[in-house]
Every structure is written in C-alpha cells, then in structure tokens.
Design goal:
CATH topology of the largest domain: Fructose-1,6-Bisphosphatase, Chain A, domain 1
Strand order of the largest sheet: 4-3-5-6-7-8-9-10
Number of strands: 15
Radius of gyration: 17 Å
Distance between the termini: 28 Å
Shape: globular
CATH superfamily of the largest domain: Fructose-1,6-Bisphosphatase, subunit A, domain 1
CATH architecture of the largest domain: 2-Layer Sandwich
Number of helices: 9
Low-confidence stretches: none
Number of domains: 2
Length: about 270
C-alpha cells in the first residue's frame, strides 16, 4: 500500500452496492452496541494499552459474518480479529466500537466504523453513532449523506465555509496526549490561533468536521480501522482528510480532517 492513494474514476458506478451494504451492516452492528451501552462492562487491555470488551468482539463478529455472507471473496481487516485475505481487489476495514473508553463510561460519542478499499484506495465510508442516532455515509463520486438524530431521510453532508483560523473550531481526541506527540509545539501554535479548541474526540470529531460543525480535527495516532471511512466521507462532504504529513491516506498512522479551507494553514502550523 502506497502512502498516497489514487482512485480509479471508472470505479464509482460499482460502489453503490458496497455503500448500501456497509450502511446496512453498520446499523445492525449499532443495535448490538446499544444492548451493552450503559451497562457495567469488564474489559481486557490489548498490546497497545487500549481496552477491548465483549461488545467490541460481538460487534465485529456480526460485521464479518455479514460481509462474508454477501462477499465471500473480499478481504477483511478488523481491529479485534485481524486480517482475512480475499481474492477480489476489495478490502473491508472495520472498527466495531471506535471510542471504546467513551462507550464503557456511558458517553454516547462512540461509533461503528466501516470502510471499504477498492484496488488499495479508500472508496466507501460509513460512520454510525448508535447512541446519538447519527450516521454519515459516502462513496467516491456519489456525495456524502447525513442522517441526523430522529430522521429517517438523509440530507447532504457538507463542511463549513469558514476560512479564517481565528473563527475555526479545532478538535482533538486527547489534548494531553497531543502535547506528548511530535506535533506538540505545532499544536500549541494552532491552539493559540484557533477560534476555539475542544476535546470532542475519536470519530465524533471527524463527524463534526464533515457536517460543518467544526473546521479541523487532529489525531496524532490513528490506525487504519480508525481512518478507513474518513477519507471518502470528508472528501465527498467537500473537505479534506490527510495524515499529519499531508498525504491523503488512511494508512499514515495519523489523521487530519478539515473543511479544506483551513487545511494548509492547520497543517503548516502543526508541522512548524
């Protein structure tokens, strides 16, 4: 996988079935999470220090079954169960519960994330927030749809038009963690110039950018399953998603979502 992903313009016509299936299974997975949400959950610590619960595993198992049932020749990469090879040039990338710590605390900002790569390029993305009743879904060349809380019909998701950093909302998952990252000094400079800074983190921060409620979301550490749906979602909503080095990839190990208008300035400050 190269660091810079390119997308074949001939593919979009074939993405609708993938998008619809990704959306359907994300919604089913969300129902599983809600059965556990708000209860006392035991967890185990993984090698990277993050927690995993029985709900994470049950949710990913459902997603994998639903994918194998319809697309048995597709590859699957998931946070909890690793990678399964496939014969087709399509790979599903799954995060059953993004924001497990929030989920365990009864905070409703967690998400089910489903991404699809076609010929090694991020092509389809779904981010479903079961406890909020919000979902965003996109496929390359088809736009980004946003289901708001309580709505059965989507509207078009669109980033904000804010172009001045002094008016921009800038988000990150963990302000203390970013101060220990390689972009710590850049973050201080950015925070000093932003209109406001908040810790609305994990995938929820990226949702806010894609739907025009914030202008930038910075994650100094981001796995492929965290990032997989974000690139098509942000780009189809009119924004940008890159790693912190400025590469439009979900495999860069970090993530920067913006409305596009402030991307260059935010990136420059972070890397100053």
């Amino acid at each position: 996988m190269g660091a810079h992903e390119t997308f074949d313009p001939e593919i979009p016509h074939s993405l609708e079935p993938l998008l619809e299936h990704a959306l359907a299974i994300a919604l089913r997975a969300g129902e599983i999470t809600l059965r556990h949400f708000g209860t006392v959950l035991s967890s185990e610590e993984k090698g990277d220090g993050t927690p995993v619960t029985a709900a994470d595993r049950e949710t990913e198992e459902l997603l994998r079954r639903e994918i194998r049932g319809r697309y048995p020749d597709h590859a699957i990469l998931g946070e909890e169960y690793g990678e399964e090879a496939g014969e087709a040039p399509v790979r599903w990338i799954l995060d059953p519960i993004d924001g497990t710590r929030s989920f365990m605390q009864g905070v409703p900002l967690y998400a089910v994330l489903v991404g699809v790569e076609v010929r090694e390029a991020a092509a389809v993305g779904v981010a479903h927030f079961p406890a909020l009743g919000e979902t965003v879904a996109a496929a390359r060349g088809t736009g980004c749809r946003w289901w708001k809380e309580g709505s059965s019909e989507p509207t078009a998701a669109a980033v904000s038009k804010v172009s001045e950093l002094s008016q921009a909302g800038v988000l990150t998952t963990d302000p203390e963690a970013i101060l220990l990252s390689p972009v710590a000094s850049g973050w201080r400079a950015l925070a000093g110039r932003a209109g406001f800074v908040r810790g609305w983190g994990d995938a929820y921060g990226h949702l806010l950018v894609a739907t025009g409620r914030a202008e930038a979301m910075i994650d100094p550490v981001l796995s492929a399953w965290d990032a997989a749906p974000l690139l098509p979602i942000l780009e189809e909503a009119g924004g940008r998603f890159t790693d912190l080095a400025g590469r439009p990839t979900v495999h860069g190990g970090s993530g920067l979502s913006t409305n596009g208008a402030v991307h260059a300035e935010v990136s420059a400050l972070l890397n100053s």
